[in-house]
Description:
The structure is a homotetramer. By secondary structure, chain A is an alpha+beta fold. Chain A has a single domain (5-359), classed as Chorismate synthase AroC (Chorismate synthase, AroC fold, 4-Layer Sandwich). The first copy, chain A, is 27% helix and 21% strand. Chain A is globular and about 65 Å long.
Amino acid sequence: MAGNIFGKIFRITTFGESHGNSLGGIIDGCPAGLKLNFEKIQKELNRRRPGQSSIVTQRNEPDQVNFLSGILDGITTGTPIGFIIYNKDHKSEDYKHIKNIYRPSHSDFTYEKKYGIRDYRGGGRSSARETICRVVAGSIAKQLIKDIQIISYVSSVGNIEINKSYQDLDLSKKNIEKSPIRCPDIYTEKKMLSLIHKTKKIGDTLGGTITCVIKNISSGIGEPIFDKLHAELAKAMLSINAVKGFEYGSGFLGSKLTGSQHNDLFNIDGTTKTNLSGGIQGGISNGMDIYFKIAFKPVATIMKKQKTIDKYGNFSIIEGKGRHDPCVLPRAVSIVESMTALVIVDYWMLKKLSKYSEIKN
Amino acid sequence: MAGNIFGKIFRITTFGESHGNSLGGIIDGCPAGLKLNFEKIQKELNRRRPGQSSIVTQRNEPDQVNFLSGILDGITTGTPIGFIIYNKDHKSEDYKHIKNIYRPSHSDFTYEKKYGIRDYRGGGRSSARETICRVVAGSIAKQLIKDIQIISYVSSVGNIEINKSYQDLDLSKKNIEKSPIRCPDIYTEKKMLSLIHKTKKIGDTLGGTITCVIKNISSGIGEPIFDKLHAELAKAMLSINAVKGFEYGSGFLGSKLTGSQHNDLFNIDGTTKTNLSGGIQGGISNGMDIYFKIAFKPVATIMKKQKTIDKYGNFSIIEGKGRHDPCVLPRAVSIVESMTALVIVDYWMLKKLSKYSEIKN
Amino acid sequence: MAGNIFGKIFRITTFGESHGNSLGGIIDGCPAGLKLNFEKIQKELNRRRPGQSSIVTQRNEPDQVNFLSGILDGITTGTPIGFIIYNKDHKSEDYKHIKNIYRPSHSDFTYEKKYGIRDYRGGGRSSARETICRVVAGSIAKQLIKDIQIISYVSSVGNIEINKSYQDLDLSKKNIEKSPIRCPDIYTEKKMLSLIHKTKKIGDTLGGTITCVIKNISSGIGEPIFDKLHAELAKAMLSINAVKGFEYGSGFLGSKLTGSQHNDLFNIDGTTKTNLSGGIQGGISNGMDIYFKIAFKPVATIMKKQKTIDKYGNFSIIEGKGRHDPCVLPRAVSIVESMTALVIVDYWMLKKLSKYSEIKN
Amino acid sequence: MAGNIFGKIFRITTFGESHGNSLGGIIDGCPAGLKLNFEKIQKELNRRRPGQSSIVTQRNEPDQVNFLSGILDGITTGTPIGFIIYNKDHKSEDYKHIKNIYRPSHSDFTYEKKYGIRDYRGGGRSSARETICRVVAGSIAKQLIKDIQIISYVSSVGNIEINKSYQDLDLSKKNIEKSPIRCPDIYTEKKMLSLIHKTKKIGDTLGGTITCVIKNISSGIGEPIFDKLHAELAKAMLSINAVKGFEYGSGFLGSKLTGSQHNDLFNIDGTTKTNLSGGIQGGISNGMDIYFKIAFKPVATIMKKQKTIDKYGNFSIIEGKGRHDPCVLPRAVSIVESMTALVIVDYWMLKKLSKYSEIKN
């Protein structure tokens, strides 16, 4: 019940710390007979890789995944898929000075309280480095549900935000990926970039929001009442480092509308004229686009002096060392998509078991 | 894997539809030896009961819970606790006219797509009536973790919202419960009441937000990396009918701050000067207050004519009949607290298994 | 993680004690659209009902199941199926004398050690009365997998045993059910009956074995490596009260053979000439009959004086009161079949998710 | 729900095939603060290692485990423990001739039916080589529950069997380990050895039984009703390759006794005079020794010609190549102990959550 397993049918278990020998995972429940596109998996990893541009950490990791089992001649065999990614450029000495110190708004303190011990090197297990395993699994999940499109992008950085709905943006992969921030709106992107550079220069950090859209998903996907599709999406998103909030469809703004304003009226074909519902009713997809937004807090490691405490109850002064992102949002896009894919693949498979008429033969 | 089981250690399974014979559930994993206070359980049920005031549905249900097992002389025995609540005042005839019709922004359409069949009477399983079972289980959970305080209140209705942080409000049970809206700020409450009455009169409905605060919780509670405490809270909240969003600590606003603004600096005793983190770091409680806010969409059933479709592909006109809430927020407070208690009890028990030194003897 | 939930996909949670108000359960995960045959369910319950003949307990229970949810017009809706069976003829006063006494080879002692409290009335939760819920769920499972035949029968009572393999017996329902012992071999049955009567007369009890055969099951069912089909069957069987052993295929005797004697050679169509494997290879069905045998210890409650201890550390004399079975085997047949059906239905559904080619559309 | 995860609290997920790059696993839920004895782990691995003596396969594998995470300075940190064992001496060319052939009584046929594809090299995932991961996890589990002794030994090979109960044998590690067969009775061991040599010479193989004894276990361990301690042990044992049967306590023989013969009478201190129950009542340990016996079928790969079929529906002749065990029992002892430890550690931790009085503080 320790929390390192995710999923019901397509289940992933992961291991690894920021500065350990390696990180990896096991996918149990991937159907047999899927021809894997390894290049796509690596491309996905490259999207969250450090060192992509001047606005992210310069830690130099190839982030190459090695598959260890469950695949024969490039095809999944139905047995568990083991994989490993070696840490190459970890500089643990950067962390010795914090061995006994609790960094503000990091989980040093809470890991120590829970476990009585913590791997201080680069944040250990609590580092976002573990999300690399999520991307490996998520990119395989994506290949399973290849007709369903999962697109996410940076919709705000600090207080700079895109003032358009997702429908009014060019969400083609090409358009999003050409931006170092993965912001599909050029005008906003420039302002974001300038804010990031300015903030980095003074040793500070930024948060922001990511919007995710799921297109071409069929209706009938979700498992009420506790495992509603959006409930599991919320859990998946909040499980990502630094995420503070989740809203889908009309979200928090929707709470200010009246029923007559908020209800989505049907077209004759079962689609709806508006989509404030965000593609889900009662925890089950209705075939319309699913969209949600998640909030990231600013990176806790700043390059400024902070007064803090150590585990012996003394005050201490700390200042960020090492190679850190001033803003993780551009790299987090692939993590958001991966976790989304992991949720969707699970519910997509479970849907096959909903109707007796479809399973009896 | 159908979604009617919640929890890891203290697990609840529920059944029942809005207009069936009864609803009920089974709690598996409640420790033995807890002397139950049945009055408290019933009081909790009364908080979500219909017919409490003029602003909620007038369906007349005693909502009395009967315990069927797992208890001897008022004390839990460690075996499963079965319970049942009979439906007394269901008027299924109110729903015959929608047997073949999909109500806008309800789950009629999606249940039909997923299961090929749906219980149309009062929304069947998708009705919020099922949350009564959550309150039964949640109120037992509350008794297990009685030192931990879980308080929630209505923080906004439509666009009327309390402009104070929770710290500046009187969150005593007495103060919250004396308000029919469960809004602890008298000034705001009056405006909310007036808005609800006005909206009800024109046959429309409202949404809003509920804020929940967890006080006196110890540090070390939570199971990273996928089952972070706030991730599970998010799932629990989004599993409640009509919820569209969740944020904890600084939430969406926090995404606009810089790291140096957002970081919570430590006091010498391990508490923090500010609490933008919302009492959780890396998915584990740090001993500070945990607080979060959730958004509810407006009730989908409105007393106005709406054009919609039936399952045969024809247009149809629908108008709400039956007894409906213009705003569910006041009743939802106990549901929010119950789901919170269910999450906390689970992680509180799991924490006992974190350290070898504490379990070996 | 308390053990009252069974199954992965078709999951059953149960509650109830021997002398409580009622027993019941919830099935979560039954596919929608199954037309239930309620008569068949009741018939199955009647097979395990007390009072069927002179050789079983005379407790007079109608054992009528009431379905509370998840069914509309006799058809499953995909939502959880709640059900309840009221206890009618419990005579708790028969048990007052053992309130503080530990009966030999019962679980009074162990429940007290684990939970610190126990429901002494009729054995509480540890009574085989709980198996009634398994039969309700199992008989629904049987209807889902109706092409698969699950047949079990009493193959030995005490040291009287059928000396034929299952292939040489008439396993028609008619032949088995006409026997009060559910032994398909008339010659052996007579000897069993006589042994039971003789043993009952002297206040003693008997054990025996049940053999179960699964016919017409397709290949490819099972989930290695930990959840092998026979491993889950073993668990299901050992979870039944009084069961001490499980063997499938060649079983314990098979351990004495050599590889060349034991190997099942193939026919050209993929069937095998012999079936010492018992229809399963590597945890996955191969399409041949699956068969297994389970051992039941003799009933622990005997009508003879036994010296025992109480919870205060004193010796005491105990003598069985109440209405008890001298031999539970005839009633256990339906329990064995039910648990078998619960295992098979789960793996049968999971099989649908094994191959990508079959789930992608 | 694919079956490669075992355990509830101390959960292990494994991957790897006989002839792949490596095998490995992840332990999620190991409490923090356990100082690991790595030498003991390796010793345990050596007990199941090939090439130990002339009577087992000569495949030359160092079987050295590498730990990748979850450990700091030799102490568990509470985060997942990843580990890997590289395959060094796999000779896949030995298997090319069976690429399209189904070996009798192997799982070639069933894997193909289930997944539509199979890794033919050395049996792929279905090979007992995967049990190496169980031993790694099991030997860590053993260190957690170090006061509980788990001892197993070979009690029969083919039709040669020890005619003494476990109480009459010297079960010291020293005595068992000095025997190449891990049979603690010298007299019987010699006969076993001679039978194995004789059988190997003619290219045939043997099965047998292993007896396992758990000593010094406290009462109150087990989770009725479905997850009874012995039910989970049965599942764990049947999940081991080639196991055909499980019995605990009096087992199959117990089914022939009467209640008055079988009941275990109490001593004044709560122990029992006899222990036909096998240390478990109602699925919960009673503090007496737990003991059980499991049956292994003979190894399916024999060095004799067998007629079989290929996947295209043709007959074919096959003859064992490669390096195979004539009898796996001596190597299986450590696997049995490991799986036992995995079950016990889980229930031992869960027991801590049974009583409210013990968890509230």
